[in-house]
Amino acid sequence: CVKLMMPNNKEMPRFSARWIAVVVLIFVVSGVFFFCEYLIYFPTILKCAWPKISHVRGGEGIDGRPMDSTLRAMVLSDTHLLGAVGGHWFDKLRREWQMERAFQTALWLLRPEIVFILGDIFDEGKWSSQKDWEDDVRRFHRMFRHTTDTELVVLVGNHDIGFHYEMDWFKLQRFEKVFNATSTRIVTKKGVNFLLVNSVALHGDGCPICQSVERELIKLSRDLNCSLQQRSLVPLTGCSAPQHYPLYRVSDAGCTGQDAAPPEERHLLFREKYDVLSKEASQRLLQWFKPRLILSGHTHSGCEVLHDNKYPEISVPSFNWRNRNNPSFILASFSAGSYALSKCFLPEESTVIAVYCSAGACLLFLFLAHCLWMKGLLQCFSLCLLGKHKSL
Ligand SMILES: [Zn+2]
Questions:
Q1: How far apart are CA 224 and CA 291, in angstroms?
Q2: Is residue 246 part of a domain?
């Protein structure tokens, strides 16, 4: 009986140590995963704050937030939800999870009153079948769900309906039906006007969609007192123009900052009607509306440009980690007469990968140490070395 009991008594500590190792392993792996995929967005976005407009009537509230006279607008761009054809399923899953967590955390922490997405919502809207389109739209609504306190305004981009030569009424109307609005219109909130433009249709070649958009723009420019001259007489007017294509600029050579285009790409010349709007279309927009601020996407990189020494434009980088290591969005405080901007950077992909790699290296080290300890290999190893030493 005593002999039979002995092996069990000897195995008990091995069994317990193995289970402790498994529990530690599960705890560490799930902790790292939870941090990298969920928690990391909170400290990063908590560092961001709404910019203050110092001379707004009413000033700040008790908690430092702008008071009700200020409109809190969040601006992001180029989400490029992968479609059914391009991209690996894991890439799709990961990018959409990242964007969903970033957006939902930003909504919860920052509570914007209006959110603009500056086009290229979908990567394959330009060619997707009706079934694939509906699937893309369903995932978009899940990712960018929001309460009625926040208004979501979506602009059209070339990946949503195709470049000018691919665009047709079917794709445009399909997009407008999903987002329940025409792509060229004025949105007014708290007395602040935003001119939304279907910039894909500003080709100026007289195509039916281009003609329709131009007619609408002429009508809007007449209806709105957006000119600088009128603004100086009536300070409570003035519009901002979020759109997909940037106004014409030669290249990104003058762009600076941590999210500007890489140095080797900055000097590449932009092609009119492809990378940026044509010179003519850009001038027409500026002359008709004299916007106090232009916000654009499409280039996937950040930039600040001043057109004609008086019209500032901000290029908003892509919100998708597939396009950037460091996506970001713009926080804008608008009053009817003024505005202030700040940029909110999201967790860098390289940081997340570094955390996973460090955790993996630590676990590998612990696993090896555990194996060596359990199997007594250290002792074996030293005995072997000793044996070799003696034989020498
Ligand atoms: Zn684009």
A1: 11
A2: yes
For residue 90, report the distance from its CA to the centre of ligand 1, in Å.
23
Which stretch of DSSP H or E encloses residue 304?
strand 303-307
Q: 297 C-alpha vs ligand 1 centroid, how far in Å?
A: 7
**Is residue 288 a part of any domain in this protein?**
yes
Domain enclosing residue 187, as ranges: 41-346
Tell me how far the alpha carbon of residue 300 lies from the centroid of ligand 1, in angstroms: 8
Number of domains in the chain: 1
Task: Give the contacts of 67 (CB within 8 A, at least 6 positions apart).
Answer: 56, 58, 59, 60, 61
Query: Does residue 382 form part of some domain?
Result: no
Ligand 1 centroid, distance to 178 Cα (angstroms): 19
| Ligand 1 ion local residues (Cβ < 5 A) | 120, 157-158, 298
**pLDDT range class, residue 4, cuts 50, 70, 90:** very low
Residue 60: CA atoms inside 13 Å, Cβ hemisphere, count? 10
Please, are residues 74 and 115 in contact by the beta-carbon 8 Å criterion? yes
Total-model pTM: 0.84
Strand 303-307 with 311-315, pairing: antiparallel
Phi and psi torsions of 303, nearest 5°: -165, 150
Whether the predicted pLDDT of 305 surpasses 50 = yes
Q: Could you report the per-residue pLDDT of 126-155, keeping only the tens digit for each?
A: 889 999 999 999 999 999 999 999 999 999
From ligand 1's centre to the CA of 158, what distance in Å?
5
Cα-based torsion angle of the residue sequence 301, 122, 196, 199 in order, rounded to the nearest 10 degrees: 70
Q: Would residue 21 count as lying in a domain?
A: no
CA count, 13 A, side-chain hemisphere, 189? 21
Distance from residue 296's CA to the centre of ligand 1 (Å): 10
